[in-house]
């Protein structure tokens, strides 16, 4: 990660041919604006950062049979971001973040083509109280999921493929969110996402929250999310409870989710997770069970997944992962159309 006021030699490269330019003009303008800002105000804390991730993906078990392809953001979403913070005095600071998702395999934009689709917010932080965010943010239940999933909802076996909490959406638009400072191990998080429907404040509204307790090697967290439909006549309710402990050679965790609505949806999700850190090597594994209790379905699915990461340096890593689904009534593997997936890739961060 480089400050705009301290560019490294790696920031300078020859421009690619014009036909390869697929980043919107607005993003290019944003880069130039922030760079000029950093040059003009030597004391400003503004940074450019990013991550490039790409992998060869082999999928099978789908309607078209075995497919080999190149994908972006397999172990971590490829991105280009800008963030900054200003000390306002008295323990108060202002901050912002703009983060754009990139598809390095095609040169396009991720998150449906949104310019800053990963995150975009501005806020205030008060020491010993907490921080207030306004914009597009990660929802509390999704952050609960990534706390228990050692693969952070990435790789072939992303937990969110089966677990309904992630289906509520990783990110939330039009949101005001508060995250408290830790007090004796406890942290709270509250989020309100406006539906912005004229004459019906409840329509398409999203509410969320979480409560975390963390002491030493132990962490427990509960996350909740409610999403109303477009007319506020029905809503989805998702609750995820997790606990994990760092035993030293192994980090182990368990999670359980309860999901109701919209409509007749009624399911339970369970996850068991392991992480084995071995210096530059990291091994990760998960088992997920989904139990559909809706009378119209009554499906059940299991997912077995594993990943291996090798750190070549602080910035660069190689990785491999796999996932197997017992059936595809609910979903497929993350980058596939069937029930099996294998990934082999590389990521570089700056």
TrEMBL record:
The name this protein goes by in its record: Porin
One Pfam family from the record: Porin_4
Membrane topology category: Multi-pass membrane protein
Matches recorded under SUPFAM superfamilies: Porins
CDD domains found in the cross-reference section: gram_neg_porins
Domain Porin, residue spans: 30-329
Keywords tagged on the record: Cell outer membrane, Ion transport, Membrane, Porin, Signal, Transmembrane, Transmembrane beta strand, Transport
Location(s), subcellular: Cell outer membrane
């Amino acid at each position: 990660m480089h400050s705009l006021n301290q560019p490294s030699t790696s920031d300078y490269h020859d421009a690619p041919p014009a036909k390869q330019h697929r980043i919107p003009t607005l993003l290019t303008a944003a880069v130039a604006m922030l760079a000029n800002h950093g040059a003009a105000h030597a004391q400003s804390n503004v940074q450019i950062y990013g991550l490039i991730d790409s992998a060869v993906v082999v999928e099978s078990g789908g309607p078209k049979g075995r497919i080999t392809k190149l994908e972006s953001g397999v172990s971590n979403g490829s991105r280009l971001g800008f963030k900054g913070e200003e000390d306002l005095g008295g323990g108060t600071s202002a901050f912002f973040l703009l983060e754009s998702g990139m598809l390095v395999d095609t040169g396009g934009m991720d998150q449906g083509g949104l310019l800053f689709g990963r995150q975009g917010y501005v806020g205030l932080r008060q020491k010993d109280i907490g921080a207030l965010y306004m914009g597009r943010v990660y929802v509390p239940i999704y952050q609960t999921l990534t706390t228990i999933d050692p693969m952070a909802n990435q790789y072939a076996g992303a937990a969110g493929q089966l677990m309904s909490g992630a289906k509520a959406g990783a990110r939330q638009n039009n949101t005001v969110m508060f995250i408290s400072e830790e007090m004796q191990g406890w942290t709270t998080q509250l989020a309100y996402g406006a539906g912005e429907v004229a004459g019906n404040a409840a329509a398409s509204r999203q509410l969320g929250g979480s409560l975390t307790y963390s002491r030493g090697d132990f962490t427990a967290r509960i996350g909740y999310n409610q999403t109303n439909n477009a007319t506020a006549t029905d809503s989805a309710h998702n609750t995820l409870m997790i606990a994990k402990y760092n035993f030293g050679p192994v980090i182990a965790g368990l999670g359980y989710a309860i999901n109701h609505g919209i409509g007749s949806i009624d399911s339970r999700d369970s996850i068991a997770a392991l992480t084995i850190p071995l210096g530059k090597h990291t091994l990760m594994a998960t088992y997920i069970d989904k139990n559909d209790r809706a009378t119209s379905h009554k499906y059940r699915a299991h997912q077995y997944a594993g990943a291996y990461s090798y750190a070549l340096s602080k910035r660069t890593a190689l990785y491999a992962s796999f996932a197997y689904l017992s059936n595809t009534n609910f979903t497929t593997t993350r980058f596939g159309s069937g029930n099996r997936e294998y990934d082999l890739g590389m990521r570089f961060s700056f």
